Every structure is written in structure tokens, then in C-alpha cells.
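re the bet — no i am not wrong, look at it urself. input seq straight from the record:
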Amino acid sequence: MLRTLGVCVLATAALAASAAARAAAAPITLTADRAITSRLHELTLTTAALPAPTHVRVLLPDGYDPTGKRRYPVLYLLNGGAGSFRDWTTPGTGEADVATAGLGLIVVMPDGGAGGWYTDWYRPGIKGRPRWETYHVKELIPFVDARYRTTGTRAGRAIAGLSMGGFGALSYASRHPDRFVAASTWSGAVNTNNPSLLASHALDLISGLDGGGPGSLFGLRE
């Protein structure tokens, strides 16, 4: 009886350890994949790094075959402040689908929050959610490489962004040089110590779009 009980305990522990390992290896859960066009998909994801489900749009190259042998480089595009992941494929504005037509390239457009600033929030000293950098760099990139036929290498991965997203692109690339071979910014807000930003409390104001208060992003500056 005791031996049987011991075996059951060990088996239960092994199953729990296996489940924990799977959870650690796959922190993102895919809950929806909606095809908008033949190339454009919108995914709904959940992760412990964010307080609510998040979205990412993925543009696949023409003729993409999920069972084929060909692998593709990836471009990550980050949205600007008060924007969203949809901006890059909005007719008349982003039009990433038009710009990349005919290119052998996968384009990934994750949500960065309206005022998330591509950082793990400080929330003065609590360091709670959202953890945008953790999600984008440590979770989303491996998820994309596992789900799509990417090269899965630094040489095949670039990042770019607009305004707040430009800050995200350059800061991610500088802190994670093993991840990206190139980075670009358009009208990037790359200096968060800019006196005009600090004087106007612009960072606190824009973080308020995502429920932040003074010092939520990087801590109090003054």
C-alpha cells in the first residue's frame, strides 16, 4: 500500500514538473488566429507579462507555405504613442502590406500599448505589469520563430518603429544585440531625458493612456 502510494506521489510530482516545464517553455498562449486577408493575420495572445490579452498582426509573404522548406527573415514593427498594432496596416497610413508586397519577408506588428514605452514598468519600485520588454523580446520572438518558418537567427531579424516605437526599436536592439541585425526609427522619441519631455511630464501623461501614474514607466525623474 505504501509503495503504491509512493509511486502515485512520484508520478504526480513528475506530471507537475512536466507541466511547469511546458509553461516555462511556452509563456504565450494563442487564443485566436483571424485571417484578415490571404497575407494578413491577427493573433490574440495571453501572457503573464501583460494584464490583459494582447494582439499582434502578422504579414506573411506571397506564396508562404507553412510546410515548405523555405525560411524567411522577420521585420518587427512597433507602434507609436496613442497608436496600436493596427496602424501599420491601416489604408492610407501604415500600409505595410502594400510596401512589402512581393518581398520574401515576414512582418510582425505587436501591440505596444498606447503608452507602454516598450519597457517593463517600474511602478515605483514594484516592477509590476505590464512587462512589455519581457513580452516582446523574451516571449514573442521565440513564439514567432516556433510558429512560422523564420530563419530564427539574428542575421534574419530586424526591428523598426515610429515615435514611441522608435524608442522601443533602438532600445531593444541596444540592450539585446544578439537578437537584431538592424534597427530603424522614424521620428523616434529616443531620448527620454529630453528636458522638454521632463518639463511637460509627457512620459507620465502618455503612460496614463494605459493606466499609469507619475513614475510608472521609469521611476520619478525629479
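see?? The longest strand covers residues 29-35. told u. also The helical segments are 2-25, 96-99, 132-147, 164-175, 195-200, 202-207. so pay up
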